[in-house]
Structures are given as C-alpha cells and as structure tokens.
Design goal:
Shape: globular
Number of helices: 10
Structural class: mainly alpha
CATH topology of the largest domain: Four Helix Bundle (Hemerythrin (Met), subunit A)
Helix content: 55-70%
Radius of gyration: 19 Å
Strand content: 5-15%
Number of domains: 2
Number of strands: 4
Oligomer: single chain
CATH superfamily of the largest domain: GntR ligand-binding domain-like
Order of helices and strands: HHHHEEHHHHHHEE
C-alpha cells in the first residue's frame, strides 16, 4: 500500500460508537473501499492500516479477514492482501445475480409496500426528472431509489444480500449512469417499475426490474474494456474516456 489516503483516524469519539475495535475497523475500511479511497489492486498491509485507524493490529486483522470473506479483499500471489478487482466474467455473474434479486425485491414490494412507501417511490421518480446531470448526483439518487424498493419489500435477508452485491459493484468503478444517455433511459425504467409496484402487479414489477439491471450490462462491459462516453461528475459535460485514463 502506498501513502495513506487521509490523515490517521485518531478520533476516540467515533470509535466509541462501535461495539468493538474490530467492528470500528471493519466499518471504516469498508467505507474506504466503497468510497474508493482504497481502489482495486491496492495493497492492504495490516500494520499500516492499524496505524491509520489508530488501533492495534489484532482488531485490524479481524476486520481484514471479514472483508476478505465478503469478497471486498483478495489475496494475490507474491503481493498479499489487496482490494479485489472484478473481471468481465465476474461482472456478468454479479449483474445476473443482481437482476434476479432486484426483480424479487420489486415483486415483493408490489405485494407488501405501504401506501406511504409507494408515495415515496412516486416522489423519487418525479425528483429524478429534475436532477442535475452529474454522475455523483445521479448515483446518490439511484441508491435512494433502489433502497426505497428494498425497504418496501420488507425482507431483511433480501436487503442484506442486495447490499453485499452493491458493495461488490463499487469495485467495478464509476456508475453506468455517468455514460451518455443512460440516466434518461434509467429514469424511464424506474418509472415503469414504480407503476407496476403501485398497481400491485408483482409479475410486471419483477420483469421491469430485471430488465432495468440487465440493460446496464452492455454499458458496464464497454466501461471495463476501456472506451465509454462519460458525464462529468461536476458540470454534466461529456468527455470521451479511453483505456488507461483514470476515473
């Protein structure tokens, strides 16, 4: 691992919010990976991470083991523990599983969503039409939208499974919503999903949700291969991204 991404996290008050030092280490390291402070391929040296976290090596080791079990870290020969990278095959497997679970969540939401939860989904669709076309804005709204569907499904185990998939997807890099034209298509797809949920049409909700996720596969494949047209995360302008250019 190279230099630390930020100053050491020596904040006792923050650590006190967790049940143990290992829980704290897990939460902070997981957040650093999800938010791409630690990018795929980055070495994760126990002693340096313990220093960064401001805790001993033992709870840091436990946290790293937990993240490895969850797939966010992997061991590479002659290198050691690194942040995981996903190839094209793994990406396709990941999206296939996500499509199945997102479809299930939408179907369950059609069965179980309360009137208030449906109103929340309808409002999120309305809000999407007025969003600034910046990748970070679109990404945060997309998380809120899908999170609202998961909550409306009322199944804690399904929610945990989808959260694990979302964690893995962050390893793939920038959101597909940052590619030209995708956010407009996604907004239409979101509207159709919510219409089906509101009409209590579970079969249609599942079909629309699965199609929505699978439409992102071709875009993600192109991104992995290195040439896509991206929306600027700041101003909404477009630029051509070639292989080797950092996100």
């Amino acid at each position: 691992m190279t230099a630390h991404p930020a100053a050491p996290l020596h904040d006792p008050s923050e650590r006190d919010q967790y049940g143990s030092a290992a829980d704290y280490a897990y939460a902070r390291l997981r957040t650093a990976i999800i938010e791409r402070q630690f990018t795929p391929g980055r070495r994760m040296r126990e002693i340096e991470l313990a220093d960064w976290l401001g805790i001993s090596r033992t709870p840091t080791r436990h946290a790293l083991s937990r993240l490895e079990i969850e797939g966010l870290l992997e061991v590479r020969p002659r290198i050691g523990l690194v942040v995981s990278s996903l190839d094209e095959t793994a990406m396709e497997e990941l999206y296939e599983m996500r499509a199945a679970l997102e479809g299930t969540a939408a179907a369950m939401a059609a069965h179980h969503a309360s009137r208030r939860e449906i109103e929340t989904l309808v409002q999120l669709v309305k809000d999407e039409a007025g969003l600034r076309p910046a990748a970070d804005v679109l990404y945060r709204h997309n998380l809120a939208f899908h999170g609202a569907i998961y909550a409306a499904a009322h199944n804690r185990f399904l929610m945990k499974s989808l959260q694990a998939l979302h964690d893995a997807i962050t390893l793939l890099g920038p959101t597909t919503l940052g590619t030209k034209g995708r956010s407009l298509d996604a907004a239409k797809e979101h509207r159709r999903i919510v219409e089906a949920i509101a009409q209590r049409d579970a079969a249609r909700a599942e079909k629309e949700a699965r199609a929505h996720i699978l439409k992102a596969v071709d875009i993600r494949r192109a991104m992995l291969r290195g040439v896509t047209e991206q929306v600027s995360p700041i101003r909404g302008s477009h630029k051509r991204k070639s292989k080797g250019e950092k996100s």
